[in-house]
Amino acid sequence: MTDRSATRVADAQRQAAGTLRVSIGFLLAAASAAASGAGEGPWLALHLFLVGGVLSAIAGATQMLAATWSAAPAPAERLVGAQRWTIGAGAVGVALGRELDVTALAVAGGLGVAVGLGLLAVGLLGIRRSGRTDRFHPSIDAYLAGIGCAAAGVALGVWMVGGEPTAAWVDVRAAHVTANLFGLVGVVIAGTLPAFAATQARTRMHDRASATARRTVVAVLTAGVGLTATGQLLDAGALAAAGRVAQLAGWLGTLALLPHVTRRNLDWAGPRLVQLAAGTAWWVAAIGALVPGDLDGRAPSTRVLAALAVGGVAQVLVASLAYLGPVIRAGGHERLSAGFATTRSWTSLVLGNVAAVTLLTGAEPVAAALIAAWALELAVRASALHRAPNTPHATIPEGP
């Protein structure tokens, strides 16, 4: 019987590369939809981005980091392949079903995404069970909590597309967004940051970032998501606002666990570390900005949500891929350094933040042009990274 532990790094990176290619395809499709104004309003671009692009990236990155840092065998190839294509096909089904007004297709797409989430949970639980070190367990637990939030969010989404619209749909839609965006994406990012920020900066995790502290902030954040979604469903503004404040507390607690960064760390990591910090700042600011609306019983501001999607979600994703792309490409330290040089982009940092600001101010045409320019810049760098000759040596990312 083959010892898959011996090839865990290469296996995990190969699997992540396949899934991240799917993610990048969705990200480019989302940017095209945003730039062209395809679909009715921003819905199509946001769902291609969040369901196809971000969820696929989460699936690929979480399992790669978990397997690598837990010293566990990578999940089975068939399991990862099934995750990849059920999530991808589900995202396409939801988008086409809604745009073509084919309810059965949209419902089937939502169910496909739910199956993909279940398979992702199976893969992460397998890694957690077989790992030889438990240092990364708090992050895996955060991923599982995020998947739980997403399962609730997908259920609400299927309910909306499969049922007759009612006056309550506004509240259901708000809870759907809360569970998926602030639950899945937010909890996964917060659960990864204490370890991943240290890796990005090439430094040690903060002494305060104990397993107990990391689990505590994730628990507070997850509970806040649940309270906000429940308050939205019940049209209880005070409860929704209390949940949002708890989310803010969870994010501020996460910031307290991030490592100290010196000038040397910043010089080495450059724009991708600044972009990671900027994306995190957008999360904190956006959650704080939504509290007054929650108290008044208003639906979350579409401008704030759009700015968060670009400034918070997309920037964290781009900063993460700027590190993970060269690592997955592998090939030793010289090749790794060359890859980091390829993905080092101050232009990306500027475009991402300016696009988010323009969305916040309501200048959608300007934001669309900036997003298109950002997507083109990223595509050029990704192509340059991909064209370089491949080598078989796996690169192990620094552990937390």
List the helices and strands and how they pair.
Layout: H1 8-36, H2 43-69, H3 77-99, H4 103-130, H5 137-162, H6 169-201, H7 211-233, H8 237-256, H9 263-269, H10 271-295, H11 302-329, H12 333-343, H13 346-360, H14 364-387
Describe what you observe in this structure.
With 400 residues, this protein is an all-alpha fold. It is 80% helix and 0% strand. It has 14 helices and no strands. It has helices spanning 8-36, 43-69, 77-99, 103-130, 137-162, 169-201, 211-233, 237-256, 263-269, 271-295, 302-329, 333-343, 346-360, 364-387. Helix 4 packs antiparallel against helix 5 (137-162) and helix 11 runs parallel beside helix 14 (364-387). The protein is globular.
Distance from first to last alpha carbon: 31 Å
State the total count of DSSP E strands.
Answer: 0
Question: Residue-averaged pLDDT, rounded?
Answer: 91
Uncertain runs are: none
| Helix amount | over 70%
Determine the structural class based on helices, strands and strand pairing.
mainly alpha
- Label the overall shape: globular
Question: How much of the polypeptide forms β-strand, as a percent range?
Answer: under 5%
Largest sheet, described in full?
Answer: none
| Helix/strand order, N-terminal first | HHHHHHHHHHHHHH
Rg computed from alpha carbons, rounded to a whole number of angstroms: 20 Å
Number of helices: 14
